[in-house]
Write a structure and sequence with these properties.
- With 115 residues, this protein is α+β, with helices and mostly antiparallel strands.
- It contains three helices and seven strands; from the N terminus they run ββββαββααβ.
- Helix 2 packs antiparallel against helix 3.
- A hairpin with a 6-residue loop joins strand 1 and strand 2.
- The N and C termini lie close together (8 Å).
- The chain has a seven-stranded antiparallel beta sheet with strand order 2-1-5-6-7-4-3, sandwiched between helices.
- The longest helix is centred in the last third of the chain and has 15 residues.
């Protein structure tokens, strides 16, 4: 996959758990191999997180490219640590205090299928 991290935002479209309709968010992310990591500041209460838990299929648009993927809550400690460190590092130029926020945000991974 091309260098996805040069983009500032990604657009994640999940399936609405109640409506079944597409639900798209714009959010910060970091890419690592074939996975993107996102931190949910609203934790498990965020609508998009609940959608991913109900139906893990997702479409992720990064730049001019769209990818199908499978979302999941990151539960493995090393992977969680990776997500919680990479995102604040990528966006440190935008905002101070991201390291503290990253400690309480919920890490979510979307494993991208090759195009």
């Amino acid at each position: 996959m091309e260098d996805l991290d040069r983009e500032e935002f990604c657009y994640v479209t999940s399936v609405g758990r109640r409506t079944g309709k597409p639900h798209t968010i714009e959010i910060w992310f970091v890419a690592s191999v074939n996975t993107i990591y996102i931190l949910a500041g609203g934790g498990a209460n965020a609508d998009w997180v609940q959608n991913i838990e109900a139906d893990p299929s997702a479409v992720v648009k990064i730049g001019d490219h769209a990818y199908r993927g499978i979302g999941r809550i990151v539960s493995e400690r090393d992977e969680s640590t990776l997500a919680r460190s990479l995102i604040p590092t990528k966006y440190a130029h935008r905002e101070d205090g991201l390291e503290r926020w990253a400690l309480t945000a919920l890490p979510v991974a979307i494993d991208l299928k090759p195009r």
